[in-house]
Amino acid sequence: MTKVNEGVFFIQGQDEFIPDSHVYVIGDPGSNDLSIVDVGLTGKGNYKIQSIKKLGIEMEAVKRIIMTHTHLDHIGCLSEIRKVIPNAELWVHRLEAEPLEKGDDRGVYGMNEFKGMCQMQYGLKSDAFKFKVDKKLEGGESLDIGGMNWEVIHIPGHSMGGIALYHSSLKILIPGDVVYADYAIGRYDLHGANADQLKKSLYRLADLEVDILLPGHNQIVKGLPPDYVRKTAKMWEPYLV
Ligand SMILES: [Zn+2]
Ligand SMILES: [Zn+2]
How far, in Å, is the centroid of ligand 1 from the Cα of 118? Predict the structure, then answer.
């Protein structure tokens, strides 16, 4: 766990045979109004909570959980985290919030075969991913939270309701699983994914000035080369049809 910048903390995912997403804690710790971006895989709740505490952050200061998207490796330990902070709100893009509220977990597991395997592996009940969402995001919001301003950008393609959070003056991008380090991008074969939308989302992100890239997995990058996202989009464009 490390401090990336003032008001931005990084907790590395602890991958097992299934990856565990990174967690970012955003907001000025003095504000008592912190947000967690993504939580991680089922079973990783305690690891994430202990990691947050090691940063010197009180869990009670965490007022909301914002999901970049709701794949199992990002939302799997939500119930574990909410046992500790039951009053924290859940913010999700509407297109993934509505299925969550209905208990439609196709977008969580991504594919049927995976669902059966995970339910067995983790002892998950059939309604394990039915949640009330406190704020449904659309994209285009400007969030003033924790003494910082973050823009919400809807970037579908890897999942239906994927979002990025962008801090324009610090040039920090949190894109979920849409774009990673090393010119990699998220997969586009799961439920709700769409290659053409993913291409458009990559080009949408390519218009942003990004200095610090904080993806859902693998390395985080400080001092991102200019036009990194555009180069990544161009490289992948032939496959995204
Ligand atoms: Zn994902
Ligand atoms: Zn992921």
Answer: 15
Question: Relative to the alpha carbon of 107, which ligand is closest?
Answer: 1
Closest CA to 36 of 96, 90, 95: 90
pTM for the whole thing?
A: 0.98
One digit per residue, pLDDT tens: the chain, 241 residues? 689 999 999 999 999 989 999 999 999 999 999 999 999 999 999 999 999 999 999 999 999 999 999 999 999 999 999 999 999 999 999 999 999 999 999 999 999 999 999 999 999 999 999 999 999 999 999 999 999 999 999 999 999 999 999 999 999 999 999 999 999 999 999 999 999 999 999 999 999 999 999 999 999 999 999 999 999 999 999 999 9
Cα separation, 140 vs 122, in Å, equals 36
Q: Of the bound ligands, which one is closest to the alpha carbon of residue 15? A: 2
30 Cα–ligand 1 center, Å: 31
Structure tokens at 32: 């008592």
- C-alpha of residue 122 to centroid of ligand 2, in Å: 18
